[in-house]
Amino acid sequence: MEKGTGYLKLVGARKGQKTILKESYSEGAFKITRPVYLTASGEAFFYIMNPGGGYLNGDSYKIDIVLEENAEAVVTNQSSTKIYKTRTCPAIQEMDILLKSGSVLEYLPDPVIAYQHACFKQKMVVRMESGASLICAEIFTPGWAPDGTVFQYDLLQSKMEVFMADRLILFDHIKLEPDKDIIGIGLMEGFTHFGTMVVIHDDVNQDLLEVLHERFELMLNCKIGLSILAVPGFALRILANSTQSIEKILSHCHETIRERLLDKEAVFLRKY
């Protein structure tokens, strides 16, 4: 895909006890902050900014992220991704991620909000070397419509391919189309908001999943699914009726992962 409306490249590298920004480039409707260090572990926190305020008809975005050996980074954005009316041509976003041995990427963006007649397609390709780790989360939520009803967007689609040593280890395809009885059984099951998290880490085991199951038992008015992957890792799915409910569950999960897998303190990334 051409660089289009916005393009961003970020290369993180380990230098001494912390991760530095080795290379960055942006053009169009994308900007990236300098690294921020919120913990004592030396991991770098990056915030992606979109000065344009939202994705419009025909917009196309491209993000490239590379973490060199033993680099550790948390990437989020400044605010939610807002998809506005895209009747004739969908808004498209592509991401290519390369994680070298020993690197850790936590990609935790704010929610994608799809407004009336929005159409959004996203594709993420992750290539990991042995020993690399990935924590990736997303939230999809319907935006405001003039008549006050939900599910007024046309399409939300997200594809994720993860390769390890050039072998496909995960293919994840989320496709939400309101005109296909989206609230019915097998789709949203009467809920309005969808959340997901994928975790790939060598130390994921059954004990960790038991801890997560115990924490999730306290969550009410939502549905939660937890699945083991073909490699050490798991996929989390959440159906709820508010962004805040999903954020709370993802926050609990992320906190547990940082404590038990990464040996790091919890962080609060939301900007509100």
Folded structure, characterized:
- The two termini are 33 Å apart.
- The model has no long low-confidence stretch (mean pLDDT 91).
- This protein has one domain.
- The chain is mostly beta strands.
- Helix 1 (206-216) packs antiparallel against helix 2.
- The chain has helices at residues 206-216, 243-260; strands spanning 6-15, 18-28, 31-32, 44-49, 60-67, 72-77, 81-83, 91-99, 104-107, 112-114, 119-128, 133-142, 155-164, 167-176, 193-200, 223-228, 233-240.
- A hairpin with a 2-residue loop joins strand 13 (155-164) and strand 14.
- Strands 3, 4, 6, 7, 9, 10, 12, 15, 16 and 17 form a ten-stranded mixed β-sheet that branches. It has a seven-stranded mixed β-sheet with strand order 2-1-5-8-11-13-14, with no helix packed on it.
Entry summary:
This protein is mainly β.
- Give the biggest sheet: 10 strands, mixed
The count of strands amounts to: 17
Helix/strand/pairing class, anyone? mainly beta
Total helical elements: 2
Give, in order, the helices and strands: EEEEEEEEEEEEEEEHEEH
- What is the radius of gyration computed over CA atoms, rounded to a whole number of angstroms? 18 Å
- Helical content class: 10-25%
Give the tally of structural domains: 1
Report the mean per-residue pLDDT as an integer: 91
N-to-C CA distance:
33 Å
Q: What form results from the Cα inertia axes?
A: globular
Q: In percent terms, what proportion of residues is strand?
A: over 45%
Low-confidence stretches: none
